[in-house]
């Protein structure tokens, strides 16, 4: 039976990244887009609870929602798709989702929501600047999507994929399985003034500094590999749990 | 030297929960509030990048920001506080933050941002319904804040604290160190119609169903204990990493 694939993102339903991913997923299944009506970057795993959401069918198999990527996945799975999807594919994001930054990422959060709802999921992002070569990333999306449909994924685990922004696939060294890297510091907050002279702050524009290390996602893309990181939703620090149990006086 | 403590939340600067936490943190340090100007629940780890943010000093040591909890922590640490804080305390949230739900939580995300910026952090939430007994949770906040200031926390790790909504502290059995629980399913999405007859969807109102198990956060609060879960920011599934490394053909 042809697998059903949900495609979403956080750059919005009209972005070139989602169009490339949609085309790629059509090679391996019945693909549907359910995506935000406009850009919702850095929204994290936000869910819209304070207002109703509107779904619009733009064309065959393509729906837009005036909400977040997480809203899109929840609505798609529970209300929009003809049956439960076999795969959630989120992206192709315009820009990296590496290290701690994944906690801010709408792209990765869509894959987290898929995983919470027990659908195998991956997020895919392009690392680099304009011009973006979505076709290169799309060809890896086909490979990874096919792998997941074939072998599934470990319990409670999604794949976070980052692809170097190379013009052609054969300019990339291959795929590396990695661990989540660590961003050390990025303090960039601009101070700006309104037309009325009030000070405001604008977050962004900093250069992240990364811890480097073997197996890290950031290192893999620097070495011109596709980074594939298995991410799980159990955030418990089990070492700390054992440690704290021993020393906390159970009051 | 008196420690400096940043107090924030996602229910907004005027909520009774943050006032109770502020008062509690003043018992153990120089406390400052930097919090959203209004409720920002279920915003996840959202960072506002598309517009400037305005900070208002409401009264001594109390600031409001027209942004998310994550914005508040970043601005406080980099721009507002007189020096780097020794502790970030986020809450007291009106309602539980247990299991997978922490990925949606603005309250927990504030503590995640503190941890990313290398400040020991905890999030504290009241489990139950109105009327909320913030003083009970506040007394545990003092105990936990003091513990963290004294002993610090493991690398990259915060504490997610959930307190049963008991009228008095002695009605609670004590503190349990727990692991993150697992919410199984909550499909509640209402279908409603606009005044013009358009169908809309409204997410929410469902009854979560929980996996139960030893050491789980949800079980501890059901047993009338304060649940303290050590959460870390490295989401890598290391078992899956080893497994995938073995089987993935490095193309």
Descriptive notes:
The structure is a homodimer of 251-residue chains. With 251 residues, the first copy, chain A, is an alpha/beta fold. In chain A, 27% of the residues lie in helices and 28% in strands. In chain A, the strands form three sheets. Chain A has a nine-stranded mixed beta sheet, sandwiched between helices. The longest helix of chain A is centred in the middle third of the chain and has 18 residues, at 134-151. The first copy, chain A, starts with a strand and ends with a helix. The model of chain A has no long low-confidence stretch (mean pLDDT 92). At the A-B interface, helix 2, helix 3, helix 4, strand 8 and strand 10 of A face helix 2, helix 3, helix 4, strand 8 and strand 10 of B. Chains A, B: Keywords: Cytoplasm, Hydrolase, Metal-binding, Nucleotide-binding. Chains A, B: It catalyses: a ribonucleoside 5'-phosphate + H2O = a ribonucleoside + phosphate. Chains A, B: Its main location: cytoplasm.
CATH homologous superfamily descriptor of chain A: Survival protein SurE-like phosphatase/nucleotidase
Structural class of chain A: alpha/beta
Q: What spatial order of strands do you see in the largest sheet of chain A? A: 3-4-2-1-5-6-7-13-8
Q: What form of chain A results from the Cα inertia axes?
A: globular
CATH class of chain A equals Alpha Beta
CATH architecture of chain A: 3-Layer(aba) Sandwich
Low-confidence stretches of chain A: none
Percent range for helical residues of chain A? 25-40%
- Count of DSSP-assigned helices of chain A: 6
Number of structurally distinct domains of chain A: 1
As a whole number of angstroms, the C-alpha radius of gyration of chain A is 19 Å
Q: Most extensive interface: pair and counts? A: A-B, 79 and 79 residues
């Amino acid at each position: 039976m042809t697998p059903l694939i949900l495609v979403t993102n956080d750059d919005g339903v009209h972005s070139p990244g989602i169009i490339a991913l949609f085309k790629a997923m059509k090679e391996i299944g019945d693909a549907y887009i359910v995506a935000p009506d406009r850009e919702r970057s850095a929204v994290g795993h936000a869910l819209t609870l304070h207002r109703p959401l509107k779904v619009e069918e733009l064309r065959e198999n393509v729906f837009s929602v005036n909400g977040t990527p997480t809203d899109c996945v929840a609505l798609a799975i529970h209300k929009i798709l003809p049956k439960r999807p076999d795969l959630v594919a989120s992206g192709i994001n315009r820009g990296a989702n590496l290290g701690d930054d994944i906690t801010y990422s709408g792209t990765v959060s869509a894959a987290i929501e898929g995983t919470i709802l027990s659908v195998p999921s991956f997020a895919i992002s392009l690392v680099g600047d304009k011009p973006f070569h979505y076709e290169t990333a799309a060809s890896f999306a086909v490979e990874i999507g096919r792998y997941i449909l074939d072998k599934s994924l470990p319990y409670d685990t999604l794949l976070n994929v980052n692809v170097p922004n190379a013009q052609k696939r054969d300019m990339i060294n291959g795929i590396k399985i990695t661990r989540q890297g660590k961003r050390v510091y990025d303090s960039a907050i601009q101070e700006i003034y309104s037309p009325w002279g009030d000070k405001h702050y604008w977050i962004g524009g900093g250069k992240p500094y990364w811890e480097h290390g073997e197996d890290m996602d950031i290192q893999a893309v620097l070495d011109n590999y596709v980074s594939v990181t298995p991410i799980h939703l159990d955030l418990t620090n089990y070492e700390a749990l054992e440690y704290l149990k021993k020393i906390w006086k159970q009051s």
